[in-house]
Each structure stands twice: as structure tokens, then as C-alpha cells.
Write a structure and sequence with these properties.
Elements lengths: L1 H14 L7 H4 L2 H22 L6 H10 L2 H13 L2 H6 L10 H14 L6
Helix pairs in contact: 3-5, 4-7
């Protein structure tokens, strides 16, 4: 994740013409760098998990139980494809449930509402 994405971000930063605008006028690069750093670990876990097989409710429930920080990343991906308000309407819990059965239910809901994870 870091290599290709970091390269694209650096290329974009260099492409902004300093005579017209300051890069900091529109984008808070320190906030973007901070966000990228905070999402790196969950994104790496999801990426490794995807390379191991197909997305299915039981497998996703196992991931959520094993690496609960991936849940916030997954919700963010869904919100990016829809909206935060729509995610709220689906009534997803604020945290990963402790019970395996409830995690499978949550995983099924995440897949149903449009998680876009591809191997």
C-alpha cells in the first residue's frame, strides 16, 4: 500500500503549480499523512487476508474477531462507496461483537450492504 500510494501522492504534490496556489490552501497534507499512517496497519491486515481467499461471512467474522481495528477501515470503505448517513441507517454496531454468531451476522450485513473488498 505504502509504496504505490505514497508515490502517487508525492507526484500529485509536485504537480501543484506553486504560482497559482499553495498546496496547503486546499489540502492539509499533515492530516492526510497522519490518516495514511493510522490506516496502514488495518489496510495491511485486510490486504493479507484478501490474498488468502474469497470474502465470505464466516471468514470476514474471523477477521473481525482476530483484528478488530479492521472494522473501522471496512466501515470507512463502505461509507466511501455510499455515505456516512447511509451507514448509520443500517444500524451497524459501534464495535465488533464478542460472540462469534453475532460477528457472522455483522459480516453478512457488511457484505450485503456493499463491502467492496476484492482479492
Amino acid at each position: 500500500m505504502e509504496g504505490a500510494l505514497a508515490t502517487r501522492i508525492k507526484a500529485y504534490r509536485r504537480s501543484v503549480t506553486p504560482y497559482l496556489i499553495s498546496r496547503e490552501d486546499f489540502l492539509d497534507w499533515s492530516e492526510i499523512d497522519s490518516a495514511l499512517a493510522s490506516w496502514k496497519a488495518p489496510a495491511s491486515v485486510i490486504d493479507a487476508w484478501l490474498s488468502e481467499g474469497k470474502v465470505a461471512p464466516k471468514r470476514l467474522a474471523e477477521l473481525l474477531g482476530m483484528a478488530p481495528r479492521t472494522y473501522r477501515a471496512i466501515l470507512t470503505l463502505i461509507a466511501f462507496n455510499t455515505s456516512d448517513a447511509q451507514v448509520d441507517k443500517w444500524g451497524v454496531p459501534p464495535t465488533v461483537p464478542q460472540e462469534q454468531r453475532r460477528r457472522v451476522e455483522l459480516a453478512s450485513l457488511l457484505i450485503e450492504i456493499g463491502i467492496r473488498l476484492r482479492a
